[in-house]
Amino acid sequence: EIAMATLPMDFNIYELPGSVYRRAKEIVKKKESPFKEWSAALRATPGILDYSRAAIFALIRSAHPEFYHYPGRLQGYINANLTETDHENPTEEALTAARHTPEKDAVEEANRQLAAARGEYVEGI
């Protein structure tokens, strides 16, 4: 989940596109940044496994993109901003911050991202 949250594209965080899942597995295997820094900091956070996927995505995606370079600042950010109280029912605010987009067609979005990765012009990317 941490690796997926570090990806720049928006997608349905509860029905993951195959391309997103494969890329996340690659990130984990290679221990790429910022995944490895976020992973270490979140593993050190008490009760982290109780938080919803939306809360974790929102936390990572709302952070300043350079926080992971500074472990102390990253842990302080986590402690100050991981505030979910109902782990079973994430708020609309958390889902929005997580960039959860259930209405997006996963295949269409994957095709757009792949086209952009090939260097093709894709509106909105």
TrEMBL record:
Organism ancestry: Bacteria, Pseudomonadati, Pseudomonadota, Gammaproteobacteria, Enterobacterales
Source superkingdom: Bacteria
Organism: Salmonella typhimurium
UniProt-recorded name of the protein: Exodeoxyribonuclease
